Backbone:
């Protein structure tokens, strides 16, 4: 008996109880659709978090040695701007130099601790894309002599808006307290509410002047790579070129982001595994019922001369065929849903405040890569085969003598 | 010269358990080619077990058994399947057709297992359906046929592989009189025309009347072995 005939027999057996088969196929469809969609939703969230995080941090940061432990204003990168220019000239790399300070932001209402970033808007924008995140006003080009861009959360808490005055106080390179008055030029909004609440941007030259540093001095070089896959290679080259500087990738700067990126596959397999486990029990239950109902018939097939491996293959075929019918429908529906919602996004603004605490945007764009579709397809195929084994083995317990026994 | 299809000697089957049950005890039986023999006896006398043993569907606890010249005792399961496929036809009490196949596909099924070419299978199946009077129901599924028609398809299927003999377990038990007579006439004709050996287990007097030999079992033993209808 050839494989084609076994498949024909299996296919017809699938439809001998259409309702039962349709229920199983429907559970495959719904299970896959729901599983794929939730995974795509999670991937959309984690992609956004990663993208936003990298825009805050940059792919690679370079500091003077020891700056991560003691961020004194005097710990500047030797060579300053010229080092940043050299790094920015590397192929596939964009770089900007930043001056940094930690201090207090004071308004007529209250004071709050902030990180002050002195940036050059022209070279900063390709790295942090801050221009796109300005919600009110402009970045620095609004005509104010001492402009500052602040986050929306901070603006709301301090009742600040474009044109409002604030004072930044911090230690200069000599350890003295210095202050500078600034006017809010723009209010930005990122997906990370903690960043929005604690980071302000001022022109680098003005910050350097207040810090008592040379106008070419910088504390940080932030790099963005055209190809993120080059991360380790570029970092390694920089470490070789600047052995006295501290070169850290975003994974080293923010281990929690690295965890999100690296744990995605694990989460995917765990989540899909749970769904497929449930599905497997459904398949086993349905097929077992189908097999137990047909004990005598299977015994008859054996009596007539059907071999055990043929019986096994027939039951395996019935299971795989049912999953095969449901899988493309489930995948198709999921792909359609993901494509539609991937364009329009899912608005989670009701939970916006909570999500922002974790650096997540309120609009989520579900996405799933072809590789993940392929991996899940492999999991489904493995589940179908594994779930069929027990019913198929049960079928082999039928004996030819069962068939000849009277009803 | 007559040819022995079945030779059983001291055939015994004991089902183990807390209280072992001896279903067939020391049966000596020889069936020759072309016989139309019936095994009769009350319920529990061991008819079905004897047929299972003779058909290679179950293995004896002791005794010898040769079918079509082949020693079946101790035959490996896969070889036994092969042997059944090529030498024995089965007709079951409950018809036991494959519900998802049409009448002609059911008859073809055994030939398919034998690996016969498609054309040959189809021709032989149609020829047999013609022989059992069901040529016009070739495409009908079992659920679309009466019990009598299903049993005639089962007879056609049993003969499809040109077996040495056909074992039929109470083939008329579920049939009305008219269907039963029709089926018996068909089998008798095939027995005479194709010299196919038939061995039935039955309670049915209509089968006994047509049998050329009647073997009576009681408590697993043969208590009578007499010629039947001439």
Residues:
């Amino acid at each position: 008996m050839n494989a084609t005939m076994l498949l024909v027999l299996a296919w017809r057996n699938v439809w001998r109880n259409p309702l039962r088969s349709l229920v199983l196929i429907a559970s495959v469809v719904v299970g896959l659709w729901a599983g794929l969609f939730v995974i795509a939703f999670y991937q959309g969230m984690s992609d956004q978090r990663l993208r936003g995080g990298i825009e805050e941090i940059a792919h690679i940061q370079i500091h003077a040695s020891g700056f991560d432990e003691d961020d004194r204003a005097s710990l500047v990168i030797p060579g300053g701007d010229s080092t940043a220019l050299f790094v920015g000239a590397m192929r596939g790399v964009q770089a900007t130099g930043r001056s940094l300070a930690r201090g207090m932001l004071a308004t007529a209402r209250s004071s709050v601790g902030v990180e002050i970033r002195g940036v050059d808007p022209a070279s900063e924008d390709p790295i942090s894309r801050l221009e796109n995140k300005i919600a009110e006003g402009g970045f620095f080009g609004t005509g104010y002599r001492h402009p500052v861009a602040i986050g929306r959360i901070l603006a709301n808490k301090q009742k600040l808006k474009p044109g409002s005055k604030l004072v930044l106080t911090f230690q200069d390179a000599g350890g003295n307290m210095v202050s500078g008055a600034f006017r809010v030029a723009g209010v930005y909004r990122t997906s990370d509410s903690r960043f929005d609440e604690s980071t302000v941007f001022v022109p680098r030259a003005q910050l350097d002047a207040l810090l008592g540093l040379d106008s070419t001095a910088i504390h940080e070089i932030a790099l963005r790579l055209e190809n993120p896959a080059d991360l380790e290679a570029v970092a390694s080259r920089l470490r070789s070129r600047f052995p006295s500087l501290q070169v850290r990738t975003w994974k080293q700067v923010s281990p929690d982001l690295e965890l999100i990126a690296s744990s995605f596959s694990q989460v995917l397999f765990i989540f899909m595994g749970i769904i497929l486990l449930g599905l497997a029990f459904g398949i086993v239950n349905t097929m077992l019922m189908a097999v137990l109902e047909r004990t005598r018939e299977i015994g008859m097939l054996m009596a007539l001369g059907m071999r055990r491996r043929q019986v096994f293959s027939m039951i395996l075929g019935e299971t795989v065929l049912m999953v095969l019918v449901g899988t493309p429908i489930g995948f198709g529906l999921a792909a359609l849903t993901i494509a539609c919602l991937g364009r329009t996004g899912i608005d989670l603004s009701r939970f916006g405040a909570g999500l922002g605490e974790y650096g997540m945007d309120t609009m989520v764009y579900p996405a799933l890569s072809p590789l993940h579709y392929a991996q899940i397809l492999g999991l489904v195929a493995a589940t179908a085969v594994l779930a069929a084994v027990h019913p198929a083995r049960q079928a082999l317990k039928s004996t030819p003598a069962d068939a000849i026994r009277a009803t | 010269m007559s040819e022995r299809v079945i030779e059983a000697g001291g055939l015994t089957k004991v089902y183990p358990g807390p209280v072992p049950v001896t279903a067939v005890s020391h049966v000596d039986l020889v069936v020759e080619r072309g016989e139309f023999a019936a095994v009769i006896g009350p319920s529990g006398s061991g008819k079905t077990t004897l047929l299972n043993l003779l058909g290679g569907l179950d293995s004896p606890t002791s005794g010898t058994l040769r079918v079509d010249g082949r020693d079946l005792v101790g035959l490996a399961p896969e070889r036994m399947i092969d042997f059944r496929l090529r030498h024995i036809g089965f007709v079951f009490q409950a018809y036991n057709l494959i519900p998802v196949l049409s009448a002609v596909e059911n008859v073809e099924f055994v030939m398919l297992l034998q690996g016969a070419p498609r054309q040959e299978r189809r021709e032989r199946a149609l020829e047999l359906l013609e022989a059992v009077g069901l040529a016009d129901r070739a495409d009908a599924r079992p659920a679309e046929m009466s019990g009598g028609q299903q049993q005639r398809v089962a007879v056609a299927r049993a003969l499809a592989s040109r077996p040495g003999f056909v074992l039929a377990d109470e083939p008329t038990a579920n049939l009305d009189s008219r269907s039963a007579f029709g089926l018996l006439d068909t089998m008798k004709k095939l027995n005479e025309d194709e010299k196919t050996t038939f061995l039935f287990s039955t309670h049915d007097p209509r089968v006994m009347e047509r049998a050329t030999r009647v073997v009576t079992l009681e408590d697993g033993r043969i208590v009578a072995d007499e010629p039947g209808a001439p």
